[in-house]
């Protein structure tokens, strides 16, 4: 089963550049995982941290807009939509990982 690189789908989304950077370029994995790059665990941690920061920014911007403290509606909408796209990407990556795990578990030994 061929799984396309995540960066192919993310490249056209202007608000998802933070995710692509947070995922380490999604396909630019080098070495055997024991190098100074940190490996998959650190990449996943930084991607989740980036997602959390984006969600927190969108929430605080929404509260500021609702209370009248924010004057630029477009930046608030942009931040909220960016957070939404990042969450959708994270869910799809999780779904692919679960599908791969389930397929491995179905394999005959």
Characteristics of this structure?
single chain; 109 residues; mainly alpha; 4 helices
Describe the overall structure:
- The chain has 109 residues and is an all-alpha fold.
- The chain has a domain at 40-109.
- The chain is built from 4 helices and no strands.
- α3 runs antiparallel to α4 (73-106).
- The longest helix has 34 residues, at 73-106.
- The radius of gyration is 17 Å and the shape is elongated.
- The model is unreliable at 3-31 (pLDDT under 50).
Give the secondary structure arrangement, pairings included:
Layout: H1 6-10, H2 17-22, H3 39-66, H4 73-106
Give the structural class: mainly alpha
Distance between the termini: 18 Å
Q: Provide the helix percentage.
A: 55-70%
CA-based gyration radius: 17 Å
Query: How many strands?
Result: 0
Task: Please give a quick description of this structure.
With 109 residues, the protein is an all-alpha fold.
């Amino acid at each position: 089963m061929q799984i396309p690189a995540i960066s192919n789908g993310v490249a056209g989304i202007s608000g998802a550049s933070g995710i692509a950077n947070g995922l380490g370029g999604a396909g630019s994995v080098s070495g055997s995982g024991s190098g100074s790059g940190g490996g998959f665990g650190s990449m996943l941690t930084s991607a989740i941290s980036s997602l959390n920061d984006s969600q927190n920014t969108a929430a605080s911007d929404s509260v500021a807009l609702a209370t009248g403290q924010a004057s630029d509606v477009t930046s608030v909408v942009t931040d909220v939509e960016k957070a939404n796209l990042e969450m959708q990407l994270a869910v799809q990556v999780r779904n692919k990982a679960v599908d791969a795990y389930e397929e491995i578990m179905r394999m005959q030994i």
